[in-house]
Every structure is written in C-alpha cells, then in structure tokens.
Write a structure and sequence with these properties.
about 260 residues; single chain; seven-stranded parallel sheet; about 10% strand; alpha/beta; Rossmann fold
Length: about 260
C-alpha cells in the first residue's frame, strides 16, 4: 500500500464534509496537508483539528477563478518544495429541475465541478510528474447515472470520469489516478446545493442526514487510494443501481424512478 508519510497532500473543498475528513485522515498518516476552499475561517478551524496543526497550510481558493491557480501552485511549492497528491474534492451540488434551471446556473455548476478541477489539475500536473504523485478525484454516484434534481451536477460528474479516465491512461507510469464515487454521505452538501436561481437549498436532506458517516467515507477513499484503485464506489444500498444499470438496465430504470430525490 502507498505511504503518505511526509507527503504533501493538497485538498480542495477542505473546509467541511468529505474534504475536512480526508484532511484528518491524511494528517493521521503523517502527511502535510494544504487546505483549500473559499472559507478561510473554516479552513483555519479544520487545520487546528489536525495532528500537528503547525505542519499544515491554509490556502484559500475559488475554483471558478482559474487565473489564480498558477500563483496558488507557486505558493505551495515555495512552502514545501513539492506536491505529491492533489485531491479534487471541491464542488457544489444541485437541487432543481432541469427545465427550470437557468443556463447561468448550469454554467456555474460546470465551472465549479468540472472546469475548476481540470484547470487546477493541469496547473499541478508537471509537479505531480516530478514526484510520481497521485490525483484523487471525488466524483459521486451521480457520476455513474443521472438522478432527479441533479441534471447539471450529474453531467459535471460524468465529465470528470471521462477526463480523468483519459488522463490516467495518458499518465500511466507517471501519475496515479483514483476516482471515488460517494453515495449518500452525512455531510452538509445539500445545504449549499444550488436551486434553479443559483440560491442555496439551505436544507439538510434526508439522504444526507441518514447517510454513511463522513469519517467512514474518508477512510474508504484513502484506503482505495493507498491501494492505487482506479475507481471506488462508497455508500450503502444506493451503490446497487450502479451494478443494475450495467448488467440489468431495464430493472435499473424501473427501480430508480421510485427513489427519493432528497
């Protein structure tokens, strides 16, 4: 299994949820974490919860501002001299019908969930090659099949799979790629999900409140990455439709239309 001891691990979306739990997990394995999101105050709080807080770096980052990425990469390199792992976790979910969602919101969802991670990856990739490093992509079960109220979110996650599966083939032997697909995880992701007007959903959905514990999810992601797995599905019963769609598509469509959207 891969070791993260003394590795520099850059995590986007690290201020809460899966990102914060991943930071805790990597820090416990001896990694130095670079914590990024737009919420600097919350990032400071997360850093102070990690083993040896003084080892870790808070670096505010907006995934829609790709012109700032080269400077951000330079900041990390000046601080640590290397980047070993990039965790593309930052993103925003959706709670709106496709027919009612403005095109501006569609663009925003794609920018945060797809173009931002792609742009940051391209900025970091030369240094991952030097360190023979790793990219961990936090996709979603929505990256395996579309679902109610998630049209553009699902589209962005599907796009991540296409891009990073291609990148994995192109960088084989130089940079490792693991794509994680969480299902229903107990995080506040639904609180910040966008509605048709780009406003926050501001509700904790039942799918999240009853989902898998976020620390368990993070442990499974790190374990898969340490084993250099190309893809890992994480969740409870909600991962079953992935297999149904692959092997029994007619059964999949009969079942999925009866699932709760929130």
């Amino acid at each position: 299994m891969l070791s993260y001891h003394n590795k520099v691990v850059w995590i986007t979306g690290a201020s809460s949820g899966i990102g914060a739990s991943l930071a805790k997990g990597f820090a416990s394995l001896g990694a130095t974490c670079v914590l990024s999101s737009r919420n600097e105050k919350q990032l400071d709080w997360v850093r102070n919860q990690l083993a040896h807080p003084e080892r870790h770096l808070v670096l505010p980052l907006d995934l829609t501002a790709s012109d700032t990425f080269p400077d951000a990469v330079g900041f990390v390199l000046n601080a640590f001299g290397r980047i070993d792992v990039l965790v593309n976790n930052g993103g925003v979910s959706q709670r709106s019908l496709a027919a009612e969602t403005s095109l501006a919101v569609d663009h925003q969802l794609m920018e945060v969930n797809f173009f931002g991670p792609v742009a940051l990856t391209k900025a970091v990739l030369p240094y991952l090659r030097k360190s023979e490093g790793q990219i961990i992509v936090i996709s979603s079960i929505a990256g395996k099949f579309g679902f109610f109220l998630r049209s553009t979110y699902a589209a962005a996650k599907h796009a991540l799979h296409g891009f990073f599966e291609s990148l994995a083939l192109e960088e084989e032997g130089k940079v490792r790629v693991t794509i994680a697909c969480p299902g229903k995880i107990n995080t506040p992701i639904s609180m910040s999900a966008l509605n048709e007007n780009g406003e926050k959903h501001n509700a904790m959905d039942d799918n999240q409140s009853t989902g898998m514990d976020v620390d368990v999810c993070a442990h499974k992601i790190i374990r898969a990455a340490r084993k250099n797995r190309r893809e890992v599905l994480i969740g409870k019963k909600e991962i079953i439709p992935v297999y149904l769609k692959r092997y029994f598509p007619y059964m999949f469509w009969r079942i999925i239309r009866n699932q709760k959207a929130v």
